[in-house]
Amino acid sequence: MFKELHDTVICKGKAMSERPQPLKAVNRFFEGKEPWQIVTMTASSILALVWAHSLYNAKESPTTRLRKQFFHWLRQLPIVRKTIEKKMAEINKDFRKDVNKRLAGVTVRRELPATGLSPEQVAEEVRDHLSLGNYDWKNGNVSGAVYHTNEEIAKVACDAYALSAYTNPLHSDVFPGVNKMEAEIVRMAANLFHGDDNCCGTVTTGGSESIMMACKAFRDYAYNKGISNPQIVVPTTVHCAFDKAAQYLGLSVKSVPVDPETLCVDIAAVKRAIGRRTCLIVGSAPNFPYGTMDDIAALSDIALEYDVPLHVDACLGGFVAAFMERAGHNVPTFDFRLPGVCSMSADTHKYGYAPKGTSVVLYRKPEYRHYQYTVTTDWPGGVYGSPTVNGSRAGGLIAACWATMMHVGMTRYVQMTDEIITTTRYVEQELRKVEGIFIYGKPATSVIAFGSKRFDIFKLAELLHKKGWSMNALQFPSGIHICITHAHTAEGVASRFVTDVRSAAHECLTTSSGPVEGKMAIYGVAQEISDRSLVSDITKYFIDSMYYLPEQSEEDAKK
């Protein structure tokens, strides 16, 4: 019996000694503790782990959340709150003053007319409204915005829209021809970007919706793979439509820095940013701020290595880049020829020259596009399926886009691309010679961004504004850019721009001018505000002003 007891003790001792070290440590930690203490400590540990997990999976980093919370608390202090409210009221008032100035002497309508206006009266008022702007966009004084001024192309598109303005591709049995035109737009675009027979997509209302649809597709694709809180990895220079998509779709965003010299995404940083939650990585071809193109080939390799989808945002310059090789200009490979590219977005209403309101989102295979769709099967109104955000869609826009592409054709697209890129290269070379400014990175297609280390670049933008030029302002770092369109290829426009930049830069270098005013002043000041929610509030007041109607005197109202 004593031998059996001895053997049992020895065996148990061996068993205890063979237990894993972490388990021994846990046993020692709880040794001598009361049951209630063990329960309390265990529950507290579990809650702490849950909190840490939620923090790790949050849509914003802990640093961002803490900074926002700090400024939120700070704004609750009475003296701070009153100061902010006073300043915001002044800013809102200034925005409304600008609207009053723009609409001075113009009839403002708040009620339906008692008797409808005649067609001639309506047309006259439309022309009056279109003449209210400060910039001569038809003669090339605007960066981007309107991508051609050819009256023949415009007439073809508008005639097509007029014929199909009341059609709706949602009702495919009623308007099968509109569906055919959309399918042809998608197929032609897929071929331009070297997609194979499986490549597919849809027409959307613009670049933002194309981007949102791609994000929705790969979010749901990630859900299907068991990722409950998907995250997209994007360069800091990526279009803000990705942030908009994240806000709408509940995605988190991991922003990756760009190389300060090339202004292209840091490839090593992209690798470091990819994690188990990554549902999509993004590259721009080119990006909006600087016009540089991310290394899509390297991103494609990463996408294959880490088995994550890659979206190429070619909304801005895609319909230029697609024709550059045919036009004799070099452009890096950025499309479906790269095996890691799963989707692309490109705007037909930019360099496709269609009227505003169309874009395409393309996928390597139909499986991805299926995740873009929204389908409801249990609605009393029947089974409902929609390919994009909208249910009813404007068939007229699809027809106008199709008509534009049919009318322009390959040869003319190549010719217009050559004219745009040739003009862009001329402007870039001449701006590099201007004293006091420098070019950001290497423009890949049609956008040229520049800054200055010797004067406030927004002062130069203000001087250009006075000369009639509308420029795009950049921040972090400060800069401005011009997006060359076909309107700039008209004789004398590019040289006039270069001359005006040279003159404005010389004035900035040789005179001690006052502070920057107007819109450019807001961009300059906004960068210095640590509390970005204040900048957000200012922006909201600016958007409010777009819907503001000034009061009128009785005399003006009668007119």
SSE diagram, text form:
Blueprint: H1 2-17, H2 21-30, H3 35-56, H4 62-76, H5 78-102, H6 119-130, H7 151-164, H8 176-192, E1 200-204, H9 207-224, E2 231-235, H10 241-249, E3 252-256, H11 267-273, E4 278-284, H12 296-306, E5 310-313, H13 318-324, E6 341-346, E7 359-363, H14 366-372, E8 374-376, E9 384-386, H15 395-432, E10 438-439, E11 447-451, H16 457-466, E12 472-474, E13 479-483, H17 493-510, H18 518-526, H19 532-545, H20 554-558
Parallel strand pairs: 2-3, 2-4, 4-5, 5-6
Antiparallel strand pairs: 1-7, 6-7, 8-9, 10-11, 11-13, 12-13
Structure description:
- By secondary structure, this protein is of the alpha/beta class.
- Among the domains are: 2-56, no CATH class; 172-408, Type I PLP-dependent aspartate aminotransferase-like (Major domain) (Aspartate Aminotransferase, domain 2, 3-Layer(aba) Sandwich).
- Helices cover 51% and strands 10% of the residues.
- The chain has helices at 2-17, 21-30, 35-56, 62-76, 78-102, 119-130, 151-164, 176-192, 207-224, 241-249, 267-273, 296-306, 318-324, 366-372, 395-432, 457-466, 493-510, 518-526, 532-545, 554-558; strands at 200-204, 231-235, 252-256, 278-284, 310-313, 341-346, 359-363, 374-376, 384-386, 438-439, 447-451, 472-474, 479-483.
- The strands form 3 sheets. Strands 1-7-6-5-4-2-3 form a 7-stranded mixed beta sheet, sandwiched between helices. A 4-stranded antiparallel beta sheet has the order 10-11-13-12, covered by helices on one side. Strands 8-9 form a two-stranded antiparallel sheet.
- Strand 10 and strand 11 form a beta hairpin.
- Helix 5 runs parallel beside helix 19, helix 9 (207-224) crosses helix 10 and helix 9 crosses helix 14 (366-372).
- The N and C termini lie far apart (117 Å).
